[in-house]
Every structure is written in structure tokens, then in C-alpha cells.
Amino acid sequence: MGHGWPPVMKAYEHGLRPSLSIDVVTTVPGDMFTQMRCAFGCERARPLGVFWKADQPAENLLTEERLLEMATIDGAHVAGLEDRIGSLTPGKKADVVVIDATAINVAPVMDPVAAVALPADVSNVETVIIDGRVQKRDGKLVADVAKARRLVEESRDYLLEQRRGQGGVRRSGVGSGPAGTLRAVERESQLPGHFGDVGEQLREERQRQGISQRELAARLGLSPSLISQIETGRSKPSVSTLYAIVTELHLSLDRLFRGTDDDTGSGRAAPESAPGPGVGRGTVVHPEDRHVIELESGVRWERLTGYPEDEVDFMYVVYDVGGASAGNATLMRHSGKEYGYVISGRLGLQIGFRSHTLGPGDSIAFNSTQPHRLWTIGDEPVHAIWCVVGREE
User: Fold this and answer.
1) Tens of pLDDT along 339-375?
2) 320 closest CA partner among 123, 144, 136, 139
3) Beta carbons of 19 and 77 less than 8 angstroms apart
4) Which residues pair with 302 in a beta bridge?
5) pLDDT grade, residue 380 (50/70/90)?
6) Distance CA 54, CA 33 (A)
7) For residue 15, is it left (φ>0), alpha (ψ between -120 and 50) or beta?
8) Distance between CA atoms of 205 and 213, rounded to whole angstroms?
9) What percentage of the chain has pLDDT greater than the value 90?
């Protein structure tokens, strides 16, 4: 692009305070560790080449201290935010990055500043606190990574499709991502409970009650655009968001599984031995006949009854790796009582101020009015049987 060598030391010579930034994170790493090493390498390679040819000792080289300042306080200075962020100073926002100095690529630490500026990388970041809120804990982001990945993959696929419509794509082969995404979309479209149908039912019920999208969003503390995306099937809600919507609309969650009192799932005729009137058809539900709802963050609900139940939500639930009932460590609460049994995987469950870990064979029961959150622990999906009794319509 013709930028040439970055004029880092020239900026210092003219009394400026240079900083680091990234503008093309779609093609290059978006972390400061990479930028610090890049700036350091450039500012060592260029002057050292000059000093070598002149047979002179090197002087006025970029130091690790200045490098770290470029990535922190000088970045805040350039952005006009030095009075609020950029350093651990009383009165500023609590922005903290904790780095594991015992990792093999960092140890043994001789100079903490140099260790952060040069050998450390994103894998060494153990904890991140932004304005007092934990965003990364124990080396894992608390944000909804699955949702972020899904959104950027959908954006990529949309752009590629638009490019194809204009005469082809210059380059293909973006790894296995597009193929994996297409397989996921194809599988999702074949599920009995594709979320577009659920969103349509939510919209119909909202309109029946004469509630606008803006009003519903205001009641729930959500954006009108999110309500619109959920109703049109362009976005899937988290477990907590779906519970909030159906509770506000006094809608039976079980009926959202595309089921009616006469629906058996796949259209398979009820056997002759099925119970009489009032009991309902589809007493036996085969796995391929279950009504399914795919939620945000890799959570899947499969109804275990062949017909809707107004007083109980009886489900086979799957929390994929990284899946959670709500993002950003948000707790949810609703009426009713919950009973769960874990078949496989490890499930994290926070109820109020207490956290629990459930493994295969473990069960739990608790009052749903208590703030709670569920999430997958480890690299194995969680499969469980879950029952919510007494949730208000």
C-alpha cells in the first residue's frame, strides 16, 4: 500500500506520542500484542540496518517501556480519553488486563514490561475487566462467542453471495467455515421447529394483544430491532430472552414447538392403542418426531410430549460447547419450578449467589423465581432432561 516504515521514533523526535491501532481485523490479528511486536520489529530492523552499514553502535532505539505505553496510555491520549482510561489510576475507569506470567512462552520473567510487550500473546490473558465488569474469566470470554461467530459468518456468507451475483468471487476457500455454515443452515431448515415459525407465532400473539414491537421491547428492556429480527426468524433469542417474551405475552412456551392439541409432530397417524379423547394423540414420541426450537448460543430444546402441555415444559435440552442460557453472565428468573437431570457433559448452574457443577447422573431442583443461569463447562456438549412446572402463561 506504499506506507513504508512506520515512523515511530520520528514521531517521538518531534514531540509526538504515537499509538497503535488495527483497521483491517478481517485479514490481520486484532490484538495489541501482535501490533507491539510488529512495531518493535520494524523499529529495530530499520535503524539497526543503518547502524550496521555505518559500522556505528546503535542508539535511540524503541524500548519495551515506550512500546507498552503506545498500546495503553498513549492510545488513550490519541483518542482523547487519557483522563478516563489508559492507566491504573484512581478516578479512571477500572480497565484491567491480567496476564499469566507462569505460561511457558513468558516464563521466566526477568522484566515484567518486556514480558508483556514481546513474548506474551492473547493466550496468556487470564482476566479482562472493562469499566469494572469482568469480560474474560479464567482465560475464557464471558461474552456470547457463539452468537458473534454466527453473526460474522452470516455476514460473510451474505457478502460472498452478493459477489457471486455480480459475476463471481475472486477467491474461494475460506477454510471449512462456509461449508460448515451451509451444513448447519441446511440441517436447521430440516428441523421440525425451525425458529422462523416460532417467531411468527410470537408476532401473531403480540399483534393479537395489540402490542407494538416498540412497546414490547420497552417492557423487556430490549431493542425494537431485536424483537423484529426474532419475529421474522433472522435472529434467535437466548433462553432468557425467549422466557421473557413468552412470559410478557402470557404465552405457553410448550405451544411454541409448532404444536397444537391435534399435532403429533411428523404427521404420523396415532396408533390404534392411543388413549381416548381428552388425553391427546402422540403419547409415544420418537426422537425424529420431536418438535425442536434452536436458540441462540448453541442451545436446543426438544419437546418430549406429542402435544402441548399448559402447565409443564418437558424437554430434552442440548447446550453446545460454549452454550449458555444468556450471554454476558446475565441471570434470568421466571415463575415455576425447574427439575433437571444431566445425561452427558458438564453443566454449570448459578442460582442466586451459589454456583453448581452437574455431571452425568446429577440432578437438581430449584425455584425458577430465583435468578439463575446455565452454561456448558468444558469441550463436550451437555445433554439433559429438563422440566419446568407451573410457569405462568
Assistant:
1) 999 999 999 999 988 999 999 999 999 998 889 999 9
2) 144
3) yes
4) 292, 316
5) very high
6) 32
7) left
8) 12
9) 36
| pLDDT 10s digits, 192-230 | 344 557 888 888 989 999 999 989 988 888 888 888 888
Cβ–Cβ under 8 Å, residues 115 and 129 = no
Q: Which long-range contacts (CB under 8 A, 24 or more apart) does 37-46 make?
A: 37/117, 37/118, 39/6, 39/8, 39/67, 39/70, 40/64, 40/67, 40/117, 40/118, 42/5, 42/6, 42/8, 43/6, 43/8, 43/9, 46/5
Phi, psi of 358 (to 5 degrees): -110, 130
Strands 140-141 and 96-99: unpaired
82 contacts 76 by C-beta, under 8 angstroms: yes
**pLDDT tens profile 110-150:** 999 999 999 999 999 999 999 889 999 988 888 888 888 88
pLDDT, residue 253, reads 67
Give 108's contacts (C-beta < 8 A, 6+ positions apart).
none
Count of beta carbons in the 10 Å neighbourhood of residue 337: 14
Predicted TM-score (pTM) of the model is: 0.43
Which of 340, 257, 343, 342 lies closest to 306 in space, CA to CA?
257
Length of the chain in terms of residues written: 393
> Which residue do the cell numbers 434452536 mark?
294
| Residues forming a β-bridge with 340 | 364, 386
Highest mean pLDDT among 74-78, 152-156, 282-286: 74-78
Nearest to residue 332, comparing CAs of 242, 226, 213? 242
Amino acid in position 344: S
- Sequence-distant (6+) residues with CB within 8 A of 333 are 368, 369, 370, 371, 372
Mean pLDDT of 300-306: 87
For 263, the 3-state DSSP assignment is coil
In sequence order, what are the beta bridge partners of 264?
Answer: none
DSSP string of 337-374? EEEEEEEESEEEEEETTEEEEE-TT-EEEEETTS-EEE
CB 216 within 8 A of CB 248: yes
Cell numbers placing 366: 430449584
3-state secondary structure of 185: helix
